[in-house]
Design brief:
Layout (H helix, E strand, L loop, with lengths): L15 H10 L1 H9 L8 H14 L1 H7 E3 L8 H12 L5 H12 L7 H14 L1 H8 L5 E3 L1 H16 L3 H5 L6 E21 L2 E21 L4 E10 L5 H8 L1 H18 L9 E10 L6 E6 L1 H5 L2 H17 L6 H5 L9
Parallel strand pairs: 1-2, 5-6
Antiparallel strand pairs: 3-4, 4-5, 6-7
Helix pairs in contact: 1-2, 3-4, 5-6, 5-8, 6-7
Length: about 350
């Protein structure tokens, strides 16, 4: 299995999230996201989820990506802009640098340069450590001591949970992977009208990708365990989240990736294997309680047809290069059937 591009940077492959975009927003939206995606906007919920995932599943990466910060930080957008400007300035003379940064970040109406310099010097003194951190271009994300307490409490609750602790820990001799990146392929038959009443038939290979939170392979008993961590504010109404985000489709997509991995990389027959699926729910409302939900294989299998249909349709769009409308639009009179 060849992986040259990091998972989130690889726009040549189809992920479960891509299928969700295709199903909910159509082919034109998916095509834009794969060819010209907009800059990512920061999302507090997603950022916190990433923080918790790395702390639990990738402690080495966590140390590289985060730094605990217990010193002063900007308390306003203007202070942040001032610090950023001062950290990146090329001005050698300190007072000029502070004055320039102040003018960039704050309103200067009715203020003399002496007044602006005085206020700028005060801010620069208060936030000196923060500005020095920015100058160092460290690259790590700052987290607070409160964040660390949250992470430690979640880890403690997982360790005390009789199933979650067994899923997430790595035992010697047990094939276990965290944040396991699988690049895989899906073959779908196609028939394309090439004109003059002729068609072309063959198989189209869709390049896919999956990033599994956790995978355990028991080669002796031929059993695969797939689990996924989910942070939630609805731990005791988690069925709502399962429906809203279609987590069962995600598990089904992961199982397709594992099937491919077993066959292509492990030289195993996937049909000989049994699968278990779990979702580890982590409360983020303050108690950080842990619940583990077992998803029965038949429920996961029920989402397969949705994936197959979506991949078949995506293959058609990739083959024809037609993305503005649905396949039904192009192949029919322009009307599309509602699936009620």
């Amino acid at each position: 299995m060849e992986i040259k591009i990091p998972y989130y940077e690889d726009l040549t492959r189809i992920s479960n999230s891509n299928i969700g975009w295709f199903l909910q927003k159509g082919p034109a939206y998916l095509h834009k996201m794969l060819t010209d995606p907009p800059p990512e906007e920061k999302n507090y919920v997603l950022e916190r989820g990433t923080l918790i995932h790395e702390y639990l599943l990738q402690p080495e990466e966590f140390q590289k990506d985060y730094v605990v910060w217990d010193k002063s930080r900007p308390t306003s957008a203007q202070q942040e802009k001032f610090c950023q400007a001062l950290a990146s300035t090329l001005e050698i003379e300190p007072n000029r640098a502070i004055l320039s940064a102040y003018k960039e970040a704050y309103s200067t109406a009715g203020k003399s340069e002496d007044k602006m310099l005085s206020e700028g010097l005060k801010i620069a003194s208060t936030l000196k450590d923060y500005i020095d951190f920015l100058k160092a271009n460290d690259g790590r994300t700052m987290i607070s001591p409160w964040d660390v307490k949250m992470l430690e409490k979640i880890e403690q609750n997982i360790r005390s949970h009789k199933l979650a602790s067994n899923l997430i820990k790595v035992d010697e001799g047990v094939w276990t992977r965290h944040e396991f990146h699988i690049n895989w392929e899906y073959l779908t038959p196609y028939i394309v009208d090439i004109g003059q009443n002729e068609t072309e038939e063959g198989f189209y290979k869709i390049k896919c990708k999956s990033l599994l939170d956790g995978l355990i392979l028991d080669f002796k008993n031929k059993k695969a365990i797939i689990y996924d961590l989910k942070t939630t504010q609805k731990l005791w109404h988690f069925e709502d989240s399962i429906d809203q985000y279609d987590y069962c489709r995600q598990l089904a997509y992961y199982s397709m990736a594992v099937d491919w991995y077993l066959e292509e990389e492990c030289k195993e027959e996937p049909l000989d294997w049994t699968y278990e699926y779990y979702i580890v729910g982590i409360d983020t409302t303050g108690s950080y309680e842990i619940r583990v939900f077992k998803v029965e294989p038949y429920i996961v299998q029920s989402r397969m047809d949705t994936i197959y249909d979506a991949l078949d349709a995506i293959a058609w769009h990739q083959t024809t290069g037609k993305w503005e409308h649905s396949r039904a639009y192009y192949e029919g009179n322009g009307s599309e059937t509602l699936n009620l």
